[in-house]
Amino acid sequence: MKRIVSPSRSFASDNNAGVHPEMIDAITAANQGHVVAYGDDPFTERAVKVFQKHFGRDIAVYFVFGGTGANVLGLKAATKSYNAVICAETAHINVDECGAPEKFTGCKLLSVSTPDGKVTVEQIKHFLQGVGFEHHVQPRVISVSQATEMGTVYNRSELKTLADFAHRNDMLLHMDGARISNAAVSLNANFKEITRDVGVDVMSFGGAKNGMMYGEAVMFFDKKMAADFKYIRKQGMHLPSKMRFISAQFEALLSGDLWKRSAIHANRMARILATELEKVPQIKLTQPVEANGVFATVPGKYIPALQKKYFFYVWNEEINEIRLMTSFDTTEDDIAQFVGLVKKTVK
């Protein structure tokens, strides 16, 4: 039987990183004695208050196991089965969730091709041509990823323009914030400035990609939207019995500056990686490095040799575009060793 040897470091995904030591400490501290299950515990109460500190006291926030569940359940609360969700063609809900958003919401996804992962009003307004016509799905939600799957970041103006357009047309703005911390530090903004203040209605707040072991949050900026969400979460199989271990991590992440420290580091590592790769003549960056992702084209014949030692994904096989992700535990030495291999290989 062939033994698969995993590299000690990879650039495939920030999900591949380990758990931040401060998260381990938080989990260990929570692992004392008994508390009431399903969120009726002091850890969850404190974590909710920390979210309220960042986003406003009148939000509704619910903890779930993972990102797909957060996206699906948030969209489920915002839609009816005859609705449609508009998103970028590269969006996680469109590409990497195995059809779960369509299966569990009953809605149709309407995707648009974008060069940088960001949707614009001009790209999506034609979807409103069938509004009020019973033979067509009815657009209800615009969903954006922040940061996008292409490593780019929506600025405040772009988000507000989308939100204003949505609200004028009886729609909502959903944000997949799996990498919201990376986006916030990229924009030098706090969370509220790039979510609530620009008109986001419902969002998934990511923890796993920023050092948590597991756990995400679904947040509503209008509590009326969350009126039945406790039932939706339970029926959607995302009500953790031992919720305190998710809550304790969120408290550790958000009560101080851990979220910012980790994201700043990951983003900085991506910029260093991009700068070094640009020195290799046959490698070309394909996207601006705005968060913790680096996208570049590499001559295809060299990719298998690089992947033998460093795990990363080929993003677009037609143009030999690869994706390299950095994380809170990526080091400059990791980058130097990888770039050294690239320079020896790509000639």
Features:
single chain, 347 residues, alpha/beta, Aspartate Aminotransferase, domain 1, 11 strands
Give an account of the 3D structure.
The chain is of the alpha/beta class and 347 residues long. The chain has 2 domains: 21-255, Type I PLP-dependent aspartate aminotransferase-like (Major domain) (Aspartate Aminotransferase, domain 2), CATH 3.40.640.10; 258-345, Aspartate Aminotransferase, domain 1, CATH 3.90.1150. Helix content is 37%, strand content 16%. The chain has a 7-stranded mixed sheet. The protein has a 4-stranded antiparallel sheet with strand order 8-9-11-10. A hairpin with a 7-residue loop joins strand 8 and strand 9. Helix 1 (21-30) packs across helix 10 (244-255) and helix 11 (258-277) packs parallel to helix 13 (332-345). The model has no long low-confidence stretch (mean pLDDT 96).
Portion of residues within helices: 25-40%
Taking all residues together, what is the mean pLDDT? 96
Major pleated sheet = 7 strands, mixed
Tally of contiguous helical segments: 13
Overall outline = globular
Rg from alpha-carbon coordinates: 20 Å
CATH architecture of the largest domain: 3-Layer(aba) Sandwich
Structural class: alpha/beta
Q: What pattern of helices and strands is seen along the backbone?
A: HHEHEHHEHEHEHEEHHHEEHEEH
Beta-strand share of residues: 15-25%
Total count of domains: 2
CATH class of the largest domain: Alpha Beta
Uncertain residue ranges? none
Query: How many E-type strands?
Result: 11
CATH domain fold name of the largest domain: Aspartate Aminotransferase, domain 2
CATH superfamily grouping of the largest domain: Type I PLP-dependent aspartate aminotransferase-like (Major domain)
